UniProtKB/TrEMBL annotation:
One matching Pfam family: DeoRC
Name by which UniProt lists this protein: DeoR family transcriptional regulator
GO molecular function: DNA binding; DNA-binding transcription factor activity
Domain (HTH deoR-type): residue spans on this chain: 4-59
Gene: glpR
Superkingdom assignment: Bacteria
Keywords: DNA-binding, Repressor, Transcription, Transcription regulation
Amino acid sequence: MKPRIQRHEKIITLVREQHYMSVEQLAQALDVTPQTIRRDINILSDENVLRRYHGGATMGDILESELQQGKRNSCQIEKNAIARHIAEHIPDNASLFLSIGTTMEAVAAALVKKRKNLRIITNNLYVASVASARSDYTVIITSGVVRPVDGGVTGVATVDFINQFKVDYAIMSTHGVEGDGSLLDYDYKEVSVMQAMMSNARVRFLGVDHSKFHSNALVRLGNITEFDKVFTARPPEAPMQKILQAAGVEWLIPADLPQ
């Protein structure tokens, strides 16, 4: 295999694992010059594998598509159990925001089975498709730009749309939860939408499977203490439990999760 092809494969592997790598980090990891890395990033960006971003590279559409497919298969038993547990805490006749993510798709499916007469506002096309199967639901899709990789709708228009409403519940997930409670995600446009949902909801629920804890990402959404309830599949570590307890945030684990 040619050295350049080998180098490209290593770059792709590193970016897939870390989701963002600077030119300097890649140059150090591969023991080449920054100029070489910049040329490699340009080539891989033209192929839509990577995306140039702030002096480095993040995942392009091809890698994001692979990641999203992996998410659909990852921790699905946990996500389904978390979703059922969230649905138990949503009353009939409620209004709610549902954000982007495979956990939210599971929540939509659980709500359809359990709850009546919901009004759902979402920027997730998959959620809208699932929820619209119920004739007693009112399902509203936000305006904005659709991401082809996951059916998410984001952008300034999406934030403006969300700000027109005040709902009972905001239900969302995130990519990562750091040890200090910081919530992290990749897309600042998606984060802006979720922040608007949080600001315009009376009650906030966060659903995260165990893989989200200590997972890294670029953009700060907020803090886990800004939610009323946290739904997860395993008990948080002791330091996180202290953070939640100090803030008066309840964390809940589904009883029907297979051991």
